[in-house]
């Protein structure tokens, strides 16, 4: 006799678990990898994501634009503006000082959001916070959920951050003479930047783990150091390269409406690997003098180029941190700062774009053979994914450390050398660097191209969904969150 249970329907699948992600306020370069991490989670794993977005009081339209077409399983929550406090750091402070302060002022709203998720029956199974938001770890502890750091920049810099508490305990002389090359802002123990950096580093040690937007093929030495040389370091998970993708998939691309951008049509008519792409990121600006020297250098080198122009500003650090601040926008037309006759003289081999170009579409184009970059980590990852050799031109903050890594560690770039007296990269020098990278017979360019091809292959391997080390690391981590910490 057939059992009565034979006709029972299978039990319903458990509802997806929810993971909370916390990027920093206003820093679009960090929001992008958080969005990509969220996409990987919801498209490849049985979970939903709540993206908690702090508000520093500036316009939220840039963030909303990035989130226009995300998968429905990602729920963005925009926090109210954080209350202003006395003695806030200046707006041109280093990120280590400015961003943690902004996040700390949002702690009550973050706590309220996690409480609301619990009340709605979708409690967070884990909280993943930006490298500038580790003080939110304490809020995760209040709710009894694991807390992780998402380190969206280089593993090399995470390694330095893990060393800092130990260095701090040493004698002052040892600190100053350490073989580890510290950024200028961290050499003075009495500076606010150093104190904030030390606080951040100590807080990282309290995390349950650290996700890093990088991969072994790019930074193998740094990951080995993190695994072997830092006994107090939480488990480290390489989950990169996470670069901007199409809105509903994980294929590298930019926004869906980028296909019609006029610069792409121009690239279609250029020979393979003949174009030098020049872009200093969404917030990178040059001084007026440097802007003109760059223009003359591009004219002198006689190579094809695609240049994304931004209106010159004298304070590059302040401009970089205020890319989403309407009051900080400069309304001048950047074309007006070009040398007289520049466009006419270069029209047969150059193309200029005001303010913005679809960078991933450009870097993935077969006509592009080199990339002048400000050494922002997102740009480095994008260039690595597509195997594009680089000219390293750092502007501020951690970009100088990244430039050293690109030239000496990765061997994937030539670094420009500013004049020691005025800090300007002069036209003659820049023209010569371009020729070294782009000339077909140039030895430096040939070696760099070979190296970047190797990096491109390594990047594709680690993101393979079935066998890639980065994909598997994220898969194991998400599985841990949604199974070990049940509702």
From TrEMBL:
Domain of life, source organism: Eukaryota
Keywords: Glycosyltransferase, Transferase
Pfam short name (any one): UDPGT
Molecular-function GO terms, alphabetical: UDP-glycosyltransferase activity
InterPro entries for the chain: UDP_glucos_trans (IPR002213)
Region (Disordered): 236-261
Assigned protein family: Belongs to the UDP-glycosyltransferase family.
Official protein name in the record: Glycosyltransferase
Lineage of origin: Eukaryota, Viridiplantae, Streptophyta, Embryophyta, Tracheophyta
């Amino acid at each position: 006799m057939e059992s009565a249970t034979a006709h029972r329907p299978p039990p319903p699948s458990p509802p997806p678990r929810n993971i909370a992600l916390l990027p920093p306020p206003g820093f679009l370069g960090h929001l992008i990898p958080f969005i990509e991490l969220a996409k990987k989670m919801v498209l490849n794993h049985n979970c939903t994501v709540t993206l908690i977005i702090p508000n520093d009081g500036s316009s939220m339209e840039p963030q909303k634009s990035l989130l226009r077409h995300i998968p429905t399983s990602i729920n963005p929550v925009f926090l109210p503006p954080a209350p202003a406090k006395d003695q806030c750091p200046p707006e041109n402070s280093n990120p280590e000082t400015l961003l943690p302060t902004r996040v700390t002022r949002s702690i009550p709203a973050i706590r309220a959001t996690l409480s609301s998720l619990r009340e709605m029956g979708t409690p967070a199974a884990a909280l993943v916070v930006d490298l500038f938001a580790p003080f939110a770890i304490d809020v995760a502890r209040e709710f009894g959920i694991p807390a992780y750091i998402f380190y969206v920049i280089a593993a090399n810099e995470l390694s330095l951050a893990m060393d800092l508490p130990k260095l701090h305990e040493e004698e002052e002389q040892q600190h100053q003479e350490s073989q580890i090359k510290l950024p200028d802002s961290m050499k003075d123990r009495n500076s606010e930047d150093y104190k904030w950096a030390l606080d951040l580093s100590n807080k990282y040690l309290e995390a349950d783990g650290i996700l890093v937007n990088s991969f072994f093929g790019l930074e193998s030495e740094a990951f080995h150091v993190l695994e072997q040389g830092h006994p107090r370091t939480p488990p480290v998970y390489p989950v990169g390269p996470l670069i901007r993708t199409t809105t509903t998939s994980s294929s590298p691309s930019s926004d869906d409406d980028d296909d019609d951008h006029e610069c792409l049509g121009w690239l279609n008519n250029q020979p393979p690997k003949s174009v030098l792409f020049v872009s200093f990121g969404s917030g990178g600006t040059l001084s007026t003098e440097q802007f003109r020297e760059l223009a003359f250098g591009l004219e002198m080198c006689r190579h094809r180029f695609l240049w994304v122009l931004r209106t010159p500003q004298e304070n590059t650090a302040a401009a970089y941190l205020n890319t989403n601040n309407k009051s900080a926008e400069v309304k001048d037309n950047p074309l007006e700062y070009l040398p007289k006759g520049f466009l006419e003289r270069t029209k047969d081999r150059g193309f200029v774009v005001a303010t913005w170009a679809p960078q991933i579409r450009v870097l993935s184009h077969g006509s592009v053979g080199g990339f002048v970059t400000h050494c922002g980590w997102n740009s480095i990852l994008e260039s690595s994914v597509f195997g594009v050799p680089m000219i390293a031109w750092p502007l501020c903050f951690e970009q100088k450390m990244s430039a050293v890594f690109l030239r000496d560690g990765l061997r994937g770039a030539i670094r420009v050398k500013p004049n020691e007296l005025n800090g300007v990269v002069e036209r003659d020098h820049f023209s010569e660097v371009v020729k070294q990278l782009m000339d077909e017979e140039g030895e430096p360019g040939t070696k760099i191209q070979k190296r970047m091809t190797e990096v491109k292959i390594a990047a594709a391997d680690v993101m393979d969904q079935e066998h890639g080390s980065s994909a598997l690391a994220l898969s194991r981590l998400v599985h841990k969150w949604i199974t070990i910490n049940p509702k």
